[in-house]
């Protein structure tokens, strides 16, 4: 850190400027590292880091305001103003400003003097001129940002003079000093400005109009001190004819300066305010803006005009707004919106939207100005099409009066378009077009009407919660009337008939009105859910629109439909109204509201397509009457058909037909209606839905025609799009055409054999192909060549038609497939509603295999986006709504046997899948069926279970003879309330488990069986013997079985199914199998064998943990002998790949058995001296140890063969190496340990039992737990006996916890001394203190 700080302080050129003082450089050590780090963090690019460092620096200095830290901080910050890193200079400037703001006792003149002395412009070298200039500039800015500069007259004058001096260096600083000067002078008082003004502003008008900063200073003086300015400069008219060109140049320079910042220069807004103040705004706008800046064809100047237009809106009156919003600027803005289409082009429309939104929000009390601005922006059109989007969010700021006026203007423009009131324009490409049909008024009117109708709908969509109900009704009636009706004769009862058209309403506009009307219906249906009280009389908007349509139909003399009704269709309409009245009697039922919504929507569709909707209305009315308990009316001539389908099936067919339409409103309605009728669903009705989803049958189904209006939408969109982007799209179209040609060549490259034969025959007939003697033959004549050319041309034309026909057929099939997939996605809505609202319905069980078939097919061919959407939605319904549902079917009836067969089938299918993800879905489906069978309480299942139990008592083979199994399945219910056949299910899953353990590439996985075991622990109890059996099998089954057992034995659910003796017996069996595996430990030659050894040791450690938690007593004698016998083979393979993990697991198990892992010295470590050797070797003398003659005698005596208490001291051969500081702090009472890891003899305390090899040994961890507090590391000692007294030893136990041999005091001292010698020099002072303490302890 010291060198880094010095490098920062001594920046290049600093030594020459201020001189390097060694005292200051060495003074860095007086400051803390934390304090010095603040200055590094201040210069970092992250804003949060800089701010946090500045805050910490200020807090640090507040505690030491008079110390040397303040002086150093000022010096460092001033030095940072001129560092070479340009990004760091503003950071140091801001930190200096905050420092001066926090400590007001620091004089600004002194700081400014330090900055000028540090960066003297007259003495600095040429190479360091630029950093010095910026240092002075940022220094003045720091004084200004502190807020104290305008209060200090002396510092202010010096800063102004410095900025004037800096303004001469334009090559480096450009106009930054003048901008800073203007900012400073704008904050000073009037008196101060009057005093300073003669020094900063010249009396020459040419100088004032030479730069934006000079002009801005002039405008500032004119605003604050006009009398002083008049004495200095005289009377000045900036908007005179001779000054206008210079104003334009100044504004152009200002526009260029903010090109990257994309903001409005302050000078432009100041000039606008001055023009308004002097009543010269029209002259300023016309001459300076429109005829000056706008004519330059310079985009930064154009953007300045757009921003000035947006910023001027709140400042202008209604008359001035008309001047601005109908001029060249708004027209040029429209051209920019139309031409800026490419992604990388700058788009000004979002910025203008912000300007307009700010204006509308700020003048809520002036609806006339709001309406004028919104109408003006809606009147900017490109050949009749407004450039404003149909969905413009600024309308949310309109007042109610302005909104009402805007809607009225839109309706009037739809009926009687006034093209002369529009600010219309054509782009350059449109002007070059020679097609006269593009410039006719009818085309402009059609484009305008389409925009208006969608604009009306978007207003309701964005403001349907705030709009008045009457205004919403007006828009809805307007759209309905002009979409489906035509006026024959005006009448006072229908206001819509009194509004004639100035241009006839064409068919395309009616189609757009029809599409917009149904979009409006969807918005109003959403409104019904969110705010139902806004509808009149509590009825939905659809009901009122149907009543309005009935009123129009009844006035047939005045109004007629676009598509006339037949007598049958009119009867269907009347019956629909009658059914609606009947539904009002059942208004309390939720089902009646859904039926009403369905009936209303289909009734309104009768206006759009009478032939298709007529039959649907009749079927819907019949289904509604049947569902509400009424018998349908039948003619006497018609007999009752006994084969008539139930009403639910008919209604499901109707919903499927409606889902085939590409309408989001119909999709929502179908979900709503199906949610009310799904409780009445029949198997046949469900089969109708599954037939659509079944991949095998849905490919050839034609009973549901899937419609698509994308082509129409594309045609409408192409018609509405302007031709302004032709130049931008020309290159793209050329690339696309080239791509299509290349694709066509590739496709035509593979020509069929028939075409080749035809080509050969034509060439042979024309003698174009010669044989062996073709060289001798003459060339073909002109007539023969012409005939051959015609034949070839006709042949290739036919081939091209055939290729095009095949391509069209392929595209048609792909489109049909896409429509079918989209239809299936929509039909999945009904499945989702069924499993969500009726999870206890038995029909839900029929969905498993169809959903699985969709998942299988989609996983195999999920290339397209539609296939992926279908897969994701099906998987979500299957996983989240079906398999993980909290509720499920509890009334199986006679389905129990079929479900058992289905479980077996699903498990078998899971084992045959090509990959694990697909198998997981099948396995989860079987688990769901197990849960249904386990929790079912049907009487039929109870009788079946009783028969099986009775058969079991009679001794029939194949049935369960354990009556407790069925009780344990559902413990909260009766003993015979479960339908699950445990024997059958056990056989199924045991076969799957055996396949998983033996099959090499099985799709089944360990998590699948873990999920099975955790959910059904009784089934796990029956499958555990298979796992235990495979623990000692081949390599792969052994590994998988060990992994499963590791997780299974830790499950509480599995443990609760075993009695204590059974659990102990299971643990013993697993332990015996693991012991058998460990006999070959360390002999692994392959990676699989090595993995098997790892899994066996992991399973062993799991067994130890389980025994410790359960406090089980197991005989570990054989296991300990096996592990000890394999220690040597493990050491031989200690350096093989992956052996470290194996050794860790091995010694973890040995530690549990009481054997500690020996400490192995590193290769570079020095051996501890033995008793026969000298305590300090000759080699260590060279390392700095004291020679033998300098050592004290007591230290030499401590290294003898016997200690004072008579016990043998640890020699260098048997003493383990140093074990670290933490272990040295432990109690000295430890038992010597052997180096090879075998258990050493320990001295048990009185009353502590010692296990013999013949008796089962308790877990060693439990022995630790039962020891007294005085026992440490398995070395018990009586508290009354002295530490040095020798204890009688007993027989050597076969297992236990090893102790650790105590090291002599000399060994501990030498270890500490060697650690100190190897430590860095800065830390040896503490080590010397430790050494002195050790010497004092040795003397005592």
TrEMBL record:
Molecular-function GO term, any one: transcription corepressor activity
Region span, Disordered: 1-24, 698-751, 945-968, 1157-1340
Keyword Nucleus: yes
Swiss-Prot/TrEMBL keywords: Nucleus
Pfam family, one: DNA_pol_phi
SUPFAM superfamilies, per database record: ARM repeat
One BP annotation, GO: regulation of G1 to G0 transition
GO CC terms of this entry: B-WICH complex; cytoplasm; NLS-dependent protein nuclear import complex
Basic and acidic residues bias locations: 703-732, 945-956
Coiled-coil intervals: none
Major localization class: nucleus
Biased composition (Acidic residues): 733-751
Ranges of Basic residues composition bias in the record: 1177-1195, 1220-1229, 1327-1340
Localisation per UniProt entry: Nucleus
Domain of life: Eukaryota
Family, as annotated: Belongs to the MYBBP1A family.
PANTHER family: MYB-BINDING PROTEIN 1A (PTHR13213:SF2), MYB-BINDING PROTEIN 1A FAMILY MEMBER (PTHR13213)
Stated name of the protein: MYB binding protein 1a
Originating organism: Rhinopithecus roxellana (Golden snub-nosed monkey)
Origin organism lineage: Eukaryota, Metazoa, Chordata, Craniata, Vertebrata
């Amino acid at each position: 850190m010291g060198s880094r700080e010095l490098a920062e302080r001594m920046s290049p050129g600093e030594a020459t400027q201020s001189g390097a003082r060694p005292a200051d450089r060495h003074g860095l050590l007086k400051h803390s590292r934390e304090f010095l780090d603040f200055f590094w963090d201040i210069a970092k690019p992250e804003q949060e880091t800089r701010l946090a460092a500045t805050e910490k620096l200020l807090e640090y200095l507040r505690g030491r305001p008079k110390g040397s830290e303040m002086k150093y901080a000022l010096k460092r910050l001033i030095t940072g103003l001129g560092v070479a890193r340009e990004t760091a200079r503003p950071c140091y400037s801001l930190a200096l400003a905050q420092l001066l703001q926090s400590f007001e006792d620091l004089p600004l003149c002194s700081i400014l003097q330090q900055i000028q002395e540090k960066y003297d412009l007259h003495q600095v070298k040429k190479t360091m001129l630029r950093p010095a200039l910026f240092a002075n500039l940022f220094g003045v800015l720091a004084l200004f940002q502190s807020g104290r500069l305008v209060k200090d007259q002396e510092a202010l004058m010096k800063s102004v003079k410095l900025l004037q001096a800096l303004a001469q260096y334009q090559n480096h600083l450009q106009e930054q000093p003048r901008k800073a000067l203007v900012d400073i002078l704008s904050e000073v008082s009037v008196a101060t400005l009057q005093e300073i003004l003669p020094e900063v502003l010249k009396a020459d008008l040419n100088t004032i109009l030479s730069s934006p900063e000079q002009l801005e200073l002039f405008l500032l003086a004119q605003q604050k001190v006009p009398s002083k300015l008049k004495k200095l400069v005289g009377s000045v008219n900036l908007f005179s004819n001779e000054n206008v060109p210079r104003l334009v140049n100044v504004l152009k320079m200002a526009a260029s300066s903010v090109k990257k910042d994309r903001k409005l220069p302050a000078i432009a807004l100041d000039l606008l305010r001055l023009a308004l103040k002097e009543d010269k705004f029209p002259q300023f706008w016309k001459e300076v803006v429109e005829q000056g800046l706008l004519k330059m064809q310079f985009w930064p100047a154009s953007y300045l005009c757009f921003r000035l237009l947006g910023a001027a809106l709140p400042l202008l009156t209604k008359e001035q707004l008309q001047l601005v919003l109908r001029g060249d600027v708004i027209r040029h803005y429209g051209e920019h919106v139309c031409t800026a289409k490419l992604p990388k082009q700058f788009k000004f429309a979002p910025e203008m939207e912000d300007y307009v939104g700010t204006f509308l929000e700020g003048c809520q009390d002036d609806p006339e100005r709001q309406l004028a601005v919104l109408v003006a922006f809606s009147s900017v059109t490109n050949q009749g099409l407004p450039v404003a989007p149909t969905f413009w969010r600024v309308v949310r700021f309109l007042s109610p009066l302005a909104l009402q006026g805007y809607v009225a203007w839109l309706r009037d423009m739809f009926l009687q378009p006034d093209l002369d009131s529009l600010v219309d324009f054509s782009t350059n490409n449109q002007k070059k077009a020679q097609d006269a049909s593009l410039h006719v008024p009818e085309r402009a009117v059609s484009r305008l009407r389409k925009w208006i109708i969608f604009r009306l709908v978007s207003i309701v969509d964005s403001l349907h919660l705030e709009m008045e109900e009457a205004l919403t009704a007006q828009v809805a009636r307007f759209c309905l009337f002009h979409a489906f009706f035509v006026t024959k004769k005006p009448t006072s009862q229908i206001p819509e008939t009194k509004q004639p058209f100035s241009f006839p309403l064409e068919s395309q506009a009616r189609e757009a009105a029809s599409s917009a009307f149904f979009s409006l219906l969807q918005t109003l249906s959403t409104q019904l859910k969110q705010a139902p009280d806004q509808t009149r009389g509590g009825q939905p908007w659809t009901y009122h629109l149907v009543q309005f349509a009935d009123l129009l139909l009844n006035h047939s003399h005045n109004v007629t439909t676009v598509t006339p009704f037949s007598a049958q269709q009119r009867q269907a309409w009347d019956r629909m109204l009658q059914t609606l009245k009947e539904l009002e009697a059942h208004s309390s039922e939720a089902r009646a509201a859904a039926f009403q919504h369905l009936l209303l929507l289909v009734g309104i569709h009768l206006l759009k397509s009478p032939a298709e909707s007529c039959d649907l209305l009749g079927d819907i009315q019949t289904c509604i009457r049947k569902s509400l308990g009424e018998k349908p009316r039948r003619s006497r001539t018609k007999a009752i058909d006994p084969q008539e389908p139930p009403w639910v099936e008919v209604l499901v067919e109707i919903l499927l037909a409606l889902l085939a339409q590409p309408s989001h409103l119909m999709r929502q309605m179908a979900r709503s209606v199906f949610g009310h009728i799904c409780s009445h669903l029949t198997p046949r009705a469900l089969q109708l839905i599954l037939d659509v989803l079944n991949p095998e049958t849905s490919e050839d189904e034609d009973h549901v025609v899937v419609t698509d209006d994308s082509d129409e939408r594309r045609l409408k969109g192409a018609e509405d799009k302007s031709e302004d982007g032709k130049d931008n799209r020309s290159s793209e179209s050329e690339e696309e055409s080239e791509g299509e040609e290349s694709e066509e060549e590739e496709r035509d490259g593979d020509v069929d054999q028939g075409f080749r034969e035809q080509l050969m025959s034509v060439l042979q007939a024309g003698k174009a192909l010669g044989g062996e003697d073709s060289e001798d033959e003459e060339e073909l004549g002109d007539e023969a060549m012409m005939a051959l050319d015609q034949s070839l041309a006709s042949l290739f034309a036919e081939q091209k038609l055939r290729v095009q026909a095949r391509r069209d057929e392929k595209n048609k099939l792909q489109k049909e497939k896409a429509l079918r997939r989209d239809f299936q996605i929509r039909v999945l809505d009904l499945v989702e509603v069924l499993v969500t609202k009726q999870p206890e319905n038995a029909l839900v069980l029929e969905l498993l295999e169809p959903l699985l078939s969709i998942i299988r097919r989609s996983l195999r061919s999920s290339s397209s986006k539609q296939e992926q959407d279908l897969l994701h939605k099906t998987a979500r319904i299957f996983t989240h709504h079906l398999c993980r549902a909290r509720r499920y079917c509890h009334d199986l009836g006679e389905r129990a046997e079929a479900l058992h067969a289905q479980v077996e089938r699903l498990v078998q299918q899971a084992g045959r899948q090509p990959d694990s993800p697909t198998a997981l879905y099948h396995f989860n489906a079987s688990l769901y069926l197990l849960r249904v069978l386990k929790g079912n309480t049907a009487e039929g299942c109870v009788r079946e279970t009783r028969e099986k139990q009775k058969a079991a008592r009679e001794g029939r083979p194949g049935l369960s003879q354990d009556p407790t199994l069925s009780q344990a399945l559902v413990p909260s219910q009766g003993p015979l309330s479960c339908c699950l056949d445990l024997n059958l299910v056990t056989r199924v899953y045991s076969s799957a488990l055996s396949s998983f353990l033996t099959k090499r590439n099985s799709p089944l996985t360990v998590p699948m069986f873990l999920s099975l075991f955790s959910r059904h622990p009784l089934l796990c109890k029956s499958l555990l013997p298979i796992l235990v059996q495979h623990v000692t099998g081949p390599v792969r089954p052994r590994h998988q079985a060990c992994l499963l057992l590791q997780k299974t034995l830790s499950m509480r659910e599995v443990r609760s199914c075993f009695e204590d003796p059974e659990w102990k017996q299971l643990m013993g069996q697993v332990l015996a199998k693991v012991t058998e595996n460990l006999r070959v430990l360390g002999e692994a030659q392959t990676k699989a064998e090595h993995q098997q050894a790892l899994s066996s040791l992991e399973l062993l450690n799991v067994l130890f943990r389980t025994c410790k938690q359960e406090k089980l007593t197991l005989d570990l004698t054989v296991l300990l002998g096996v592990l000890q016998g394999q220690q040597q083979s493990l050491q031989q393979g200690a350096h093989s790949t992956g052996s470290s993990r194996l050794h860790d697991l091995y010694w973890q198990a040995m530690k549990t058995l009481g054997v500690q892992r020996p400490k192995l010295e590193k290769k570079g470590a020095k051996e501890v001296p033995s008793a026969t050797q000298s305590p300090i070797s000759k080699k260590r003398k060279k390392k700095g140890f004291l020679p033998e003659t300098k050592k004290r005698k007591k230290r030499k005596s401590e290294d003898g063969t016997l200690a004072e208490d008579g016990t043998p001291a640890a020699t260098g051969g048997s003493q383990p190496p140093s074990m670290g500081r933490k272990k040295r702090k432990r109690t000295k009472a430890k038992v010597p340990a052997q180096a090879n890891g075998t258990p050493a003899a320990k001295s048990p305390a009185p009353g502590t039992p010692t296990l013999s090899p013949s008796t089962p040994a308790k877990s060693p961890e439990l022995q630790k737990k039962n020891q007294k507090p005085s026992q440490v590391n398995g070395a018990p000692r009586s508290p009354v006996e002295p530490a040095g007294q020798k204890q009688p030893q007993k027989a050597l136990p076969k297992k236990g916890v090893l102790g650790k041999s105590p090291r002599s005091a000399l060994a501990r001292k030498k270890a500490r001394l060697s650690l100190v010698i190897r430590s860095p020099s800065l830390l040896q002072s503490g080590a010397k203190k430790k050494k002195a303490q050790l010497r004092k302890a040795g003397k005592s």
